[in-house]
Amino acid sequence: MQYASKTTDQSGLEATWPRGRRSTFVAQRVRDMIVAGDIEAGTRINERVLTEQLGVSRTPLREAFKILEGEGLVRIDPNRGATVVGISPEEVEAAIEVLIGLESVAAARACERATPQMIAEIERLHAEMVDAYQRGELMEYFHINQTIHQRIVDCAHNATLSRIYAAESARIRRYRYAGNRRSERWARAVFEHEQILDALRQREGALLREVLRAHHLSGWGVTRNVLEGELSKAENQTLPGDR
Amino acid sequence: MQYASKTTDQSGLEATWPRGRRSTFVAQRVRDMIVAGDIEAGTRINERVLTEQLGVSRTPLREAFKILEGEGLVRIDPNRGATVVGISPEEVEAAIEVLIGLESVAAARACERATPQMIAEIERLHAEMVDAYQRGELMEYFHINQTIHQRIVDCAHNATLSRIYAAESARIRRYRYAGNRRSERWARAVFEHEQILDALRQREGALLREVLRAHHLSGWGVTRNVLEGELSKAENQTLPGDR
DNA sequence: TTGAGGCATATTGCATGCAAACATCCTAGA
DNA sequence: TCTAGGATGTTTGCATGCAATATGCCTCAA
């Protein structure tokens, strides 16, 4: 048995992992697998299988599970091990509400503290994203999109804010990806991103906050429909990843 | 050698820990020790000492360190183990900014969704807190105070919000405690809490948000002064706990 | 006296072994 | 046929041993 891996090659065992950070790297790998939907929600993860696949022993893997449990990606039941947590549309909505709140905090500060370099970096990412949009590269578009939001939050120069925002974004990433598959959303999202960029350039904190909020709410409307559609298709099974 | 423990008896080794959740319980114990200031910021934690003190082996302790690292309470350096992280006043301020943002999200929702039972529970806690205030029981007062804020956030019925709020509160708890030792702050804080309770009772989301915000900013002003005073006393050593 | 190098000890990182809990399958009795 | 119970294999939880790394100490040369 093996857990599928769409994001990395399946060539087999890892070479050698550096000593000292094995659990961290393992956590990163497993996190990627979960976020990419390689391991379906609700799946119980067998330690032996994953240790063989990753080429590490159980100790660093179990430490990685503790990290991922803290991030809300897996649940650890006594004597039953780690299970990939499934998130309901309601929970995704709750998390998005939090992300909006965090971006609201970021908005004012970002407009005060963003350096011209940071804004230029975001403009560069925006151009890349538009390019990906025009080429129809969904995955790339989606990835850059997420990066832009993270960079805006980073502009606030608040490490706590950046850390929490990154963790929560990662936790619901695979569900939001579902919403972004609707290509009719793209054009609107690109337009909204231009508004966001304008507000940041003009350093209008209150405006930036409102534009970001509207952007997320509009995106969530689409995502929710997709998720609920998939849920009813799946007939109350586990939530699908990005199939 | 032994790490002091003001919060629990020092009678020595633990009895037996239940199988299946040892790392969780160990994490709780160590978290308590850090939050209470029993282990000073900047201290490198020796695994052997702590395993002997807690009566568990290194494996669950090391898993507990991973949990606490995720919470931002310790830092794990390769081949050097876990160190209690010290937080600068700037970082505490950044975290409080985030907490204010999270409470802002909570405020509107709490006023929509709080059940009468939840409000009654908060009123009960408030009465207890006033009682502790009148008896001069600082630790108890502080603890109930924190619980009230958590309960208000819980009223929003947003699990993500509650989880993040709890984690961030814990991370900076010992620093805020320093600010609350100024007893002249107590009277004002109790008054502000009454305003908070009123806003919640009347389900005035916007008002609740503003009152909470003002409450935190006023508290932070005192805390910052205390922290900066202690910092200069300590002459750029590690941040003191609750000495 | 100081500092570089090297040896001895302490400490951490990880793999592994063993015991407890769990899961599965089989059988006996109703 | 169905179910209780138990035998057997599987999986997890934890302790421990070994190797790698860090740390402290000592020596010796400049």
UniProtKB/TrEMBL annotation, chains A, B:
HTH gntR-type domain ranges (all copies): 20-87
Q: Name one Pfam family in it.
A: FCD
InterPro entries xrefs: GntR_C, TF_FadR/GntR_C, Tscrpt_reg_HTH_GntR, WH-like_DNA-bd_sf, WH_DNA-bd_sf
Keyword annotations of the record: DNA-binding, Transcription, Transcription regulation
Q: Which residues cross the membrane?
A: none
SUPFAM superfamilies noted in UniProt = GntR ligand-binding domain-like, Winged helix' DNA-binding domain
One GO MF annotation is: DNA binding
Q: By its UniProt entry, which Gene3D superfamilies does this protein fall under?
A: GntR ligand-binding domain-like, Winged helix-like DNA-binding domain superfamily/Winged helix DNA-binding domain
What this protein is called in its record is GntR family transcriptional regulator
